[in-house]
Design brief:
18% strand
Length: 276
Amino acid sequence: MSTQVEPQPDKTPWQRVQNARHPKRPHTLDYVQRILTDFQEIHGDRLFGDDAAIVCGMGRLDGQPVMLVGEQKGRDTKQKLLRNFGMPKPEGYRKALRAMQMASKFERPIIALLDTPGAYPGIDAEERGQAEAIARNLREMARLRVPVVSVCIGEGGSGGALALGVGNQVLMLENAVYSVISPESCAAIIYRDSAKAEQAAAALRLTAEDLLKLGLVDGIIPEPPGGAHEDHDEAARFLKAQLVKSLAELGAMTSNELVQDRYERFRKMGNFFTGE
């Protein structure tokens, strides 16, 4: 599956980054209220607490029962603090895994929406096993016996996003970015100057077009002219249409085929040898 869109040549990689971070860009809950019905949120990881930076819940997509897991940012100061600026802690990833395993048990497809600058690096998160929680998600998502569609809707930051990104299909919105590191951090390391973030953004190949060419994502979902922040309803319509299509494609596969497909998809990443 490869969804092609007409690229906007006037947008540089740095402009894509700015678009992905736009304060009015729709977040997970903005899409939930537009594409799902009967949504019931799930809270808590049954180990420590509830992390508002990740939203989980059951709902219906065009009548089909699904489990949605997504990273959530805030808009005003109060919401940003509540959502920890979209940076999940270990309990967030464990909540997400609990929800996904529940979906697998009840044979519900999983939709994962990625939108984070990265996992929270604070000492409290490290004390509670941040790295282990992310690693466990990577392993367990690979074993899920239901269709998994992961969509980068804004920022896809490093392991913080990848912890929800082990899907049978991995898609990106047109102006989303997905990278191992932020342009600012990359510039600080490589160029010893974080002000060179624009230069780093171009070098990182973090745009949807770059990642599609590299075979790291399967398709690009178009956005309204100007970006998703210009028209939330239209952006949600594009997203919903692609999700319905993707789940229909994956619904024809058996549980064993889904697991094998996911394994082979990620196993071949980074392998640029043809064998000739």
